[in-house]
Amino acid sequence: MTFLPVEEQLQQIRRGTEEVIPQEELISKLEGSAKSGKPLTVKLGCDPSRPDLHLGHSVVLRKLRQFQDLGHQAVLIVGDFTGMIGDASGRSKTRPALSMAETRQHGATYFEQASKVLNPEKMQILYNSEWLGAMGFEDVVKLAMKTTVARMLHRDDFAARRARDEPIGLHELLYPLAQAQDSVSIRADIELGGTDQKFNLLMGRTIQKATGQAPQVCITLPILEGLDGTEKMSKSLGNYVGLAEPPESIYGKLLSIPDRLIYRYFELASDAGQKDLAALGQMTQEDPRNAKHLLAATIVKMYHGLEAAKRARCHFERTVIRKEAPKDVPTFTPTLLEGSRIGLLTLLTQAGLTSSNGQARRMVQQGAVRLDAKRVTDSRRVIDLAQEAPLMVRVGKRRFARITW
Asked: Do 315 and 248 touch, CB atoms closer than 8 A?
C-alpha cells in the first residue's frame, strides 16, 4: 500500500492534538509503515457506560477517521468487560458497575453513532471480553506484577481521592491494567484518547514493553467544553450536543455557546482546514453572530446533510426569532388512568418535553413553559384536557408538542 509522505501524515496527525508521546517513535512507526506498505494499527477504546455520543466524543473519533483516511487500520474496542469495572478517569468517586448485557447493548448503539464519523467499511470492532473474559486468576496476578501500587496511586484522580480520605475500590486499580491488556491483545501501534486518559494510555506502553512488544505511541486530544463554556461536555451535566439529535436541536444548541468557544468548536469538531480556520478566526472576532450560525450549519451538515442544515436555520428563525410554532409540531395524546385531568409536570414528562417531573418543575420555575403562548408559573397546575385540548405546549425555545384529547 502507498502512503502519503511521512511529513504530510505528521502534519495532519498533529492538528488539534494535545500530546504525542513520544513523537520520535511516531515518526519511526510511520517510516516503517511506509517502507513495508503495512498500515499501522490505531486503537480507540470506547466506554459503553453511556450509549449516547456527543460532539465531545467526536474530537477523538475524528482523529481516528484521519488515520483511516491516511490508510491505517482503525480498531474500535468496545469495553464490554471493562465497563463492568468502570473507568475512574476524571472521577471523584467509584463508578457504578454495569452488567455485561448493558455494556453490549450500549456498545451496539455506540458503533452505530460512531459510524456517523468513522468509515465503517475500514474499521475493525472488537469486544474486550474476548480476551479479558478468558483470563484466569493466575493471568490477572501475572498482569498485576508488571506495575506497582505506588504508580497506580500516583494517578491524579486516585491521589486526590486518597488525600481526601475517600474510598478507592481495589477493582478500580485493575482498570488501567485491563485497558493496557487490550493494547497487548491487538498489538496496537497507536492509541488515542482524551487528556483524561493519559495515565491509561501510558500504562499500555508499560505493559506492552513488559510483554516484549514494541510500545504504542499515545496521542491525547483536548477535552471539548460543553455549551456552558466551563465544564467538559457531558450528558449528565446537560451541556452536550448529541450526534444523533435532530438537526433543529443541534442548530439551536450551538447558537447558545459563548462566543469565545466558536473558534474552538470549528477547530475540534468540524472539517475546516488550516486555511479555512484562519478566516474563521477573523470572522469570529469581527462577526460572532454570523460565525455562530455558520458553525451551527456546518455541524448539522456534517451529520444530517445540507438540506437538513437549511431546514434547521429556517426552524430557528421561525421559532426563536419570530417566536412562532414550527410547522411540524408532533401531536401527543397523554395516557390517563381515569377522567380527563392531568398534572402539568406529568404532562410535560409524558410528552417527552422534559426528562423527569423534577426537570419539568425547574423549567416552570425558570419561566420556560408556555401553554398556547401563555407562560405558566404554577408547577402544581392541573389541566382538564376535555376543556383545554387541543393545546400547544412549549418548553424553552425548541421543544414543542400539540396535546390532543
From this structure: yes
